[in-house]
Amino acid sequence: MSADARHLTGHGQDTHDSHAHSSGGHGTVQSYMTGFVLSVILTVIPFWLVMGNVLDNSLVTTLVILALGGVQMVVHVVYFLHMNTKSEGGWTFLALIFTIMVVVIMLAGSVWVMYHLNHNMMPMDAHDVMNNAR
Amino acid sequence: MMHAETAPPGAAAPVFYQTDEEGHHSEGSTMLGFWLYLMSDCLIFATLFATYGVLGRSYAAGPTPKELFDLPGIAVNTAMLLFSSITYGFAMLEMDRDRVKQTQIWLAVTGLFGAAFVALEIREFVHLFHEGAPPWRSAFLSSFYTLVSTHGLHVSMGILWLIVLMVQVGKRGLIVENKRRLMCLSMFWHFLDLIWIGVFTVVYLMGVLE
After folding, report:
1. Which of B51, B57, B201, B203 would best serve as a mutation to test chain A binding (most A beta carbons within 10 A)?
2. Among B110, B156, B146, CA closest to B125
3. Does ipTM come in above 0.85?
């Protein structure tokens, strides 16, 4: 694969002028390979942490793999989706920020609200169970 | 416009206006529009993730993720999707340099990796059914199947789209329209890989941890 990459790079420089105008939204071999290598590393670490039971504390492991997942998503957006603050006059970036905001509110809000709901319903459940058992 | 009114009937002025404007405009707005579609798709997945986040621990005395999930299998699945992402990247690089044959080869490789991903996922589902873990067994399994199979369905549609585009490129070559379509599919494909990061982290890895 690396031989291929070098091959492509050589040509990329030859035809630099002809595709310079259209390459605004695309990556180069280097950017794709950087993204790929980073993704592999960021995928292998969480699998290793969980499958090898490396950290004894499962809460710490959860936080670490969530953080690594978040970082890998950023890597994909930057290196594979070629997102930057200037493409399409900044509108794609604005849409992305808006979407992230809505997603965070939706995820955190749902889990938070439903957790408390479950928590508050608990005594009633236990009560019912006790009544039924009696 | 003024020109068209004052010009004699049959003048070429309106035609001249149209061709000049469209080439630039449609490409930019297609990319932005497709990006907005992806963002709305992202919201669909966010609701499914939220549902799983709420119901993911409601086993109804049924099987738990730890008993069901086979992490080495999921790791292979993840690798398939990641490889397909980089091979699609190579297809785009070849497309930039107008090499039809190489573009087609990388697209075919991407499609094969995608098909392997879908096949492994179907095999996993069949296995889960045999283990006594169908969607109706518990709220956890209902939300699990909804989330994962929605993603799988997206990948399957992506493969279908890929095949259609390969036929298009085969027939017409790498014309502007086909390049635009391939760029849209590129965004779609990488976006699905991004969603899969969330799936393997939240559903599989965190499920087994609990």
Report:
1. B201
2. B146
3. no
